[in-house]
Structures are given as structure tokens and as C-alpha cells.
């Protein structure tokens, strides 16, 4: 089997898992998997409750924090993985079936795997837009794009397939192949709030800055580092979960050690509370119940919240 065919088969298996590689377009972007608690918000600011295979039927944005990630299938052919500390947005759909033509990377890092377009022209290539440049992969490609708006810079790695890049309004072209990467370093504006552009005729603009030379990298090492990072993140989440479960276990054991509940108290202790400007006392009896309320003179024991201490008799 040729390398491209083998790569396509492997990529399809990795991308879709239980979803078959097919020429039939799925309706609307679909959530495939996630780690931790990525934030997905519709354009009406309503937060999405994450569910596997959930279709996102309104324009949306994704924001991930330190431990978060999210996997999406878009247009059947494109799998998007949003890495931690990243932001993407789908501001609109191309048609009523949920076809996505433009996806915006606003900050952070994504992995885009485009598997198969077919011959039907309705299956348009996804246009990945960034503040620097746009990318429209029209054939098999597996790539990673990292946008750092603090530097600012953008870096592209190609893991499989090829990616034509057109910088500076098509005046400088690259054709990245598997195992090649390139970085563009830009400039911030005076307010440090956005990148700086050169404005050309006909309202065209190009980002100020320069591209590095095309460099080689080891795809195997890149993927190995990704696997190790994922394993470390999984192990950290499991340890945090174990610690939380242990904390809850100790909390329940501590609460169970009290005879009376709400508030917690032991036999013959009293709870005090201010209610309506009056001080009331209740005693924890042998049956584990708080006894009848007894009004007492207001004193230092009486507070707005329950205060449990020794009785005054």
C-alpha cells in the first residue's frame, strides 16, 4: 500500500474512532471527546453542556484553560483538536446543514486533520483563519498550528501530507511537507493589543514581520512528546480525583462522628443562634436530635449562624 493510502487509513482511524470515513457530510460540528472542563459557548452566550457526539447547531466559541482540550469533527472531513490555553471560534455556518467554511484560531494551539474531500464541490475545504494568515488545506494533511499573540508569532508543523502556504498576498509561497515546520514572527501595535499590518492598495493588508526558513523536525518525536504530555495530564487528573475522593471520604467520616447534624454537635452540647433579634438555644439529646428551642438572654454565644459549644447549665 502506498504511503499516502496507508497514512489516510491510519488518520481516518485516529480521527473518527467510531465514525467511519465517508463522503456523506455530517450535519453541524460534532463534539468527539474532551479532557477536563473546556468551555464551549454559543453566540447567545449560553454555555454548552458537553456530551459525546453532541452537534453544535449555533455559531460557537471554544476556550480552554491549563488542563483542558477538546476534539471536534467539522464537515465530516476535518478533525480539530483544541489544545490547552487556546481559543477558537466558528462565527457562522455556510448553509442550513451546518457546513463550516471559516474557523478562527484566536490564540493558542490546534491540530487540524483533513482526511478526504471527495469530488462533490459542495464539500468545501475548511478555511482556517488567524490574525496573520489563512490556511485552506484541500487534500490530506495533518498539521499543528500554534498562535502566540503575546510574541506575536505563528508556527506550523506538518505531520502528514502537504500544505501550501501563501504569505504576503501570495508574494512568498511555501509548500510544507511532512516533517517540515515554519514560523512567522510579527510585531505588536503601539497599544500592544493586536499585530501590526502594512496596508496595501485595494484594502489589502499584510502582517509586519518575517518568516523563518523551513526547518525539519521528527514527526515521531513530536507525536511521542504529545503522547507523553497526554499521559502526564491524565495521570495528574487521576491523582487530583483520588485526592478529592480521599478528602470527601475524610469529610464524611468526620461528619459521621457527630451525634447531631445540622449543625454538627455531640451529646449535651448546645447550639446557639440569633433569630429575629432573639437568642435561642437547643440541646443535642441522646437520640441525635436537637431539642426544643429555649429563648435565652442575648450573649456572645448567639450569632447569625449556628454556634455550637458547651451548654450554660
Describe the structure.
The chain has 313 residues and is an alpha+beta fold. The protein has 2 domains: 3-232, Jelly Rolls; 269-310, no CATH class. It is 17% helix and 36% strand. It has 2 helices and 21 strands. The strands form 3 sheets. It has a 15-stranded mixed beta sheet that branches. A 4-stranded antiparallel beta sheet has the order 20-19-18-21, with no helix packed on it. The protein has a two-stranded antiparallel sheet with strand order 14-15. The longest helix has 38 residues, at 219-256. The protein is elongated, with a radius of gyration of 29 Å. The protein starts with a helix and ends with a strand.
Globally, the shape reads elongated
Domains, number: 2
Q: Per CATH, which architecture of the largest domain?
A: Sandwich
Return the string of H and E elements. HEEEEEEEEEEEEEEEEEHEEEE
Beta-strand share of residues: 35-45%
Summarize the biggest pleated sheet. 15 strands, mixed
Q: What is the residue-mean pLDDT, rounded to a whole number?
A: 86
Question: CATH top level of the largest domain?
Answer: Mainly Beta
CATH fold node name of the largest domain: Jelly Rolls
What share of residues is helical? 10-25%
Number of strands: 21
Q: What count of helical segments does DSSP give?
A: 2
Pick out the low-confidence regions.
1-24
Coiled coil: 223-253
Keywords: Coiled coil, Signal
Signal peptide: 1-27
What is this structure's SSE topology?
Layout: H1 3-16, E1 30-35, E2 39-42, E3 60-63, E4 69-74, E5 78-82, E6 87-90, E7 102-114, E8 127-129, E9 134-135, E10 141-148, E11 153-167, E12 172-177, E13 180-186, E14 197-199, E15 205-207, E16 209-211, E17 215-216, H2 219-256, E18 269-275, E19 278-283, E20 294-296, E21 307-310
Parallel strand pairs: 7-8
Antiparallel strand pairs: 1-4, 2-3, 3-6, 4-5, 5-7, 6-7, 7-10, 8-9, 10-11, 11-12, 11-13, 13-16, 13-17, 14-15, 18-19, 18-21, 19-20
Keywords: Coiled coil, Signal
